[in-house]
Design goal:
The complex is a heterodimer of chains A (173) and B (409). Chain A is mostly helical and 173 residues long. Chain A is 54% helix and 2% strand. The longest helix of chain A is centred in the N-terminal third of the chain and has 14 residues. In chain B, 46% of the residues lie in helices and 12% in strands. The chains are: A mainly alpha (173), B alpha/beta (409).
């Protein structure tokens, strides 16, 4: 793997920066590109699910399967656009939108109780039964003023989730 | 960085070959763990006594509970952090050297260097290696056959020959090796452990002392050498892909260290080649043999060439070619003070302590990952152990009772 920053021209960098709304600095984009090339071992231009799962820290994450569906097969531009929600410069709305996308698997703009239950199942696995999860969730929804049949939108998510701290520092050398 | 102290002990629980053979029902957490959580939930769900009066729920309180459930940001942050940079991949990254700043005098000098290395040095080295091999083969096999009856003499000569051959190897890449510390002595009940960067670690150590090493069985010309020459030294083979192989190997190791006539045993507890900037977790196999452990730290100087062998990217032959077309391989070897198991220390702690000594001496960093994750995916048991549904219980404890009846499991 050669000196990969030489494969990104200044024009490319500016284009990528615009695409991510300037949420990453140019050095960060270069760093992310090196990382992308390191993960994409066969140089296909995208990272396969298997290559993501080769990162053990990622593979032990309970939400890894959901994130895989969002991440696999993306080219570099789409990859950093997706990850831009984790930049320190990202707005609360960006972060909420990302979390909404994780829940909203069918991408119809609505998150139902069953969508939430599925994510909760990923997180709590065999520690709780489905019935217990449902009970806890319904109770929580009612206390927040929703019902178990409500469909939540991004606005609802913004209301419910307060200030989110969700950032990752991109190492630049 | 999540702390996975259990990684070493769970190395046995690392899943089988490929994900297709993994049956999820085999990896449920233990019954007692599940019971504990069930008890908590039932406790909370059955708190009916302070129902309405104590619930001074304001709008803010209402939303807090749902927000605990919906807020997956910590989990997502860890996942994104792993994608962007993770300590495991860093262990196996070979840093390509920065290209020189080309200018009028450096470029021609570099070209001259290349011509010299490939055109003059490399052929000389190949010839040297070939001559060394011929001498070795011409002496080794006859001695092996002829002196069948006189084992002590035969073994002594064979050891001397192997040490000679390894010196020829080291000379063929112009190895500049600095040995520090007392040379290993032949004694029963001792095992040597070292950090692992490439197969040449073995050659570098072997030229000083004829160790019996435990290594992965290969095919090809390396495999041939293993079965002929290295067998006579008492080397032990294992197959990484056979999980049951482990017990058989431990038996062989135990037998070897008991025998005072056998060659000193050398083990690379990392189980795989790492890039000499980091160490992965040490497997406890070598530390359970009930003998003194003598740590050896090896650190390569990358000034002329990076000695890390990325077995997934290059064959050993290509790796050797690269070494032989570089100026020199420079490294330091430290023989450290022998260590024994402290009273009350577990084998895993012992392995960790020795790893700390080696990492400190060689000036390399430690990561809490099992080297075998290079070949296998982590078992789902690791995920279960790491992530407990805390938000549920924080939320439920903070906001008291539900109005419905308890659900019994």
């Amino acid at each position: 793997m050669g000196n990969s920053s030489s494969l990104l021209t200044q024009y490319d960098l500016e284009d990528l920066q615009n695409h991510t709304n300037h949420l990453f600095s140019q050095r960060e984009i270069v760093s992310l590109y090196e990382r992308f090339c390191a993960l994409d071992r066969t140089g296909k231009g995208f990272i396969s699910a298997d290559e993501f799962m080769g990162v053990p820290e990622f593979a032990v994450n309970p939400l890894c399967q959901r994130l895989l569906k969002m991440l696999e097969g993306l080219n570099f531009k789409e990859f950093i656009a997706l990850l831009s929600a984790f930049s320190a410069r990202a707005t609360q709305q960006d972060k909420i939108n990302f979390i909404f996308r994780v829940y909203d698997t069918d991408a119809n703009g609505k998150v139902t109780a069953s969508d939430i239950l599925q994510v909760l199942r990923d997180l709590s696995g065999s520690f709780l039964s489905d019935k217990q999860r449902e009970l806890v969730l319904n109770q929580a929804l009612e206390q927040a003023g929703y019902t178990k049949d409500s469909a939540l939108t991004t606005e609802d998510f913004s209301k419910v989730l307060g200030n989110l701290k969700m950032e990752v520092e991109v190492p630049v050398d | 960085m999540p702390q996975l102290q259990n990684a070493a002990s769970l190395s046995g629980a690392v899943g089988g070959i490929g994900e297709k053979t993994r049956d999820p029902s085999l990896f449920q957490p233990s019954a007692s763990e599940v019971n504990l959580y069930q008890l908590h939930v039932e406790d909370l769900l059955s708190l009916n006594s302070h129902a309405e009066e104590d619930l001074t729920v304001t709008d803010l309180d209402n939303k807090l509970l749902l927000c605990d459930l919906l807020d997956i940001s910590p989990v997502l942050t860890e996942a994104a952090s792993a994608i962007i940079d993770d300590s495991f991949t860093r262990c196996f990254k070979s840093n390509t050297p920065e290209p020189w700043n080309w200018n009028l005098y450096l470029a021609p000098l570099w070209c001259l260097g290349v011509i010299f290395r490939y055109g003059i040095l490399f052929p000389i080295r190949v010839v040297l290696l070939a001559v060394g091999w011929i001498i070795f083969m011409a002496l080794f096999f006859p001695i092996h056959m002829a002196l069948k009856g006189h084992d002590t003499l035969r073994k002594q000569l064979e050891r001397g020959l192997v040490e000679f051959m390894c010196s020829v190897f080291v000379a063929s890449w112009t190895g500049v090796v600095n040995y520090h510390g007392p040379r290993p002595s032949r004694r029963a009940k001792q095992v040597f452990v070292a950090n692992h960067t490439s197969m040449i670690d073995f050659i570098i150590l072997e030229q000083m002392t004829a160790f019996a090493v435990i290594m992965q069985k290969y095919t090809g010309w390396v495999g041939f050498l293993q079965t002929t020459v290295l067998e006579s030294l008492g080397c032990i083979w294992f197959n990484r892909l056979e999980s049951k192989d482990r017990l058989v190997v431990v038996q062989k190791l135990k037998k070897h260290v008991e025998d005072p006539d056998s060659n000193p045993l050398l083990v690379f507890p990392e189980g795989t080649c790492v890039n000499n900037e980091y160490t992965v977790m040490f497997k406890k196999g070598a530390f359970e043999l009930g003998c003194t452990v003598c740590p050896i730290a090896i650190k390569y100087n990358k000034i002329f060439v990076d000695a890390f062998w990325n077995s997934k990217k290059q064959s050993f032959t290509m790796h050797l070619m690269r070494l032989m077309t570089s100026w020199a391989v420079v490294c330091d070897v430290w023989y450290l003070e022998p260590q024994t198991l402290h009273p009350g220390e577990t084998h895993i702690e012992f392995a960790g302590r020795v790893r700390d000594l080696i990492a400190k001496r060689a000036g390399i960093k430690k990561v809490p990952w099992d080297g075998y994750l290079k070949y296998y995916r982590p078992s789902p048991k690791l995920t279960e152990k790491k992530y407990t549904p805390a938000p549920f219980f924080i939320g439920l404890y903070a906001h008291g009772s539900p109005k419905e009846e308890a659900v019994t499991q």
